[in-house]
Amino acid sequence: MLHRRVYQFLIIYFIGLGTLMLVKYSLNLSDYTIPGVSEIWTTCRRYFGLYLMAVLNTLCVAILGHLLSICMATVVGIIGRLTIWIGSFIRVAAYNIQAYPIVAVAPIIFILLGDGLSSRLLIAAMICYFPLLLSFIGILSEPVQEIEHFFESTRRMNWRLQVKIRAFENIHKLITVIVGSATLAMVGTIVAEFIAASAGIGYSIRIALYQSDLAKILVALFLIGVCTSVYLVFLEWLGWFIKRRLGSI
Amino acid sequence: MRLELKELHYKYPGSVGDVFRQLSCQVTEPGFHALFGPSGVGKTTLAKMIAGDITEFSGDINLHRIRHVLYTYNLERLPGWYCIREHLEAITPKSNRQRMTELVDSFGLQSCLDSRFAQLSLGQQNRTNLARYLLQDFDLLIMDESLANVDEITKEKIILKIKSLFPERCFLYISHNVVEVSKFCKQIVVLRNQYKAPQAVTLHGQDYNGRRTLKQTELEQIMLEIVNAS
Asked: Has residue B207 been placed in a domain?
């Protein structure tokens, strides 16, 4: 699973790099605009360690943000599944708020919380939170009538059992959504770092952008792609392990 | 113990035609009774009305000495995180533990106990589902095609077991099989479409319990009556 995903990423990355080289040599662009292969290789050797640490820093924040958003989506999804007014209110609010771009709110977060860990974490969590929330609300508010009927008619149903039944029956969907939102967590963290943070690979890309150093950006993109692929594979494995433990595969 | 339906009137939300018009019928004693009728006539709807799952109707449903009504249907599933044994143990009241072993044996579920529900055949799934309902406290159990996909021999064994274990309870068995309804049921409520009056006719079946010989001519007579009535 890991080698396949990394292999797919490498194919896409080198196709992109090849296209850049094609543009460079066909339009006879300078090394300042698009650096040559040897310059990219030199930059890679020089900055690999530094950028790897920056990517790992970003990945840690992304994972924390992802966990935070899963917890928030679970809690709000459980309340949002209710048929009383509070459930309905939360569902409507979730649909409306998710339409608002979090990146536009990010400057406010930086003004209020500064450019430290909390801002990066909050923006990462919020960017992957809404897609998760919409899926969680949808899944947890959809009755599984053919299982729930028995517990309802024998008066054994409680909210924990209801959530457990619905989550178990939709475990494949839930895991797919969680794995999918991991990419958003990484994107969210990088965007946060790019806007105002003082650490992480987003911050390094911002510096490289100010220096117009495309080689550094290409090295950063390479490391982001590899690390994100590893994280996604880990999540897929975790999902497979959970499904196997629950007996759903 | 009596189940009495008086002048029921019901139509599905958003639909034009009525399902029931002045429907009246009754089941007057405990035992294994049937609700019979062609497809789409409203058997499941009526069952849900009796069980309290549908409440927006006019007319009266009177339950005399029937406190707990349970409704089970053949598409129900058990939670997938349990094996059958764990589920049955979790949902069986302590007072019925002895009965659990008896039902598992007579329903032929011994070999399924360590499997999960999804691993069972359709017949085994239906038998398991019915067994767990029989382990609950109820006065009236409505069985909506609960023995579908079960072979005839096992089905007969199960029905006879139910009749011998629960003589004081009331069962309403929904089935399309005219032979088994005529053979095993005491009172047979035949539902007809809304253009026929009366919309429900009650007939008497053979109420076969395995201890006496079945009268073939009478059985055929009952079957004919049911077919004519529906």
From this structure: yes
**pLDDT of A129:** 85
User: Which residues from B are below 8 Å from A164, CB to CB?
Assistant: 79, 81
Q: Is A149 on the interface with B (CB under 8 A)?
A: yes
**What CATH number is associated with residue B223?**
3.40.50.300
Could you read off the pLDDT of A173-227 as tens digits, one per residue?
A: 998 899 888 888 888 889 888 887 788 899 999 999 998 889 999 999 999 999 9
Number of domains in chain B: 1
Contact (CB<8Å) B80/A146:
no
Q: Which of B76, B81, B116 minimises the CB distance to A146?
A: B76
Option in B70, B116, B129 nearest A153 (CB): B70
Residue B163 lies in a domain: yes
The pTM is what? Answer: 0.81
Q: How far apart are CA A166 and CA A182, in angstroms?
A: 22
> Which residues sit opposite B3 in a β-bridge?
B27, B63
* Residue B193 placed within a domain: yes
The residue segments making up the domain with residue B219 are 2-73+140-229
- Is residue B181 situated within a structural domain? yes
Residue of A nearest to B90 (CA): A156
Selection from A25, A9, A30, A10 nearest residue A214 by Cα: A30
Q: Does B80 contact A153 at a Cβ distance shorter than 8 Å?
A: no
pLDDT of amino acid A97: 73
In this predicted structure, what is the pLDDT of residue B87? Answer: 94
Predicted pLDDT of residue A91: 74
- pLDDT greater than 80 at residue B109: yes
A165 has a chain B CB within 8 A of its CB = yes
A174-201: buried (b, 16+ CB within 10 Å) or exposed (e) per residue? bbebbbebbbbbbbbbbbbbbbbbebbb
Reading the block at residue A56, the tokens are 């790992």
Is this complex's ipTM strictly greater than 0.95?
no
Nearest residue of chain A to residue B92 (CA atoms)? A154
Half-sphere exposure of A137 (CA within 13 A, CB side): 24
CATH number belonging to domain A2-246: 1.10.3720.10
**Closest partner CB to B76 (pick from A149, A156, A247):** A149
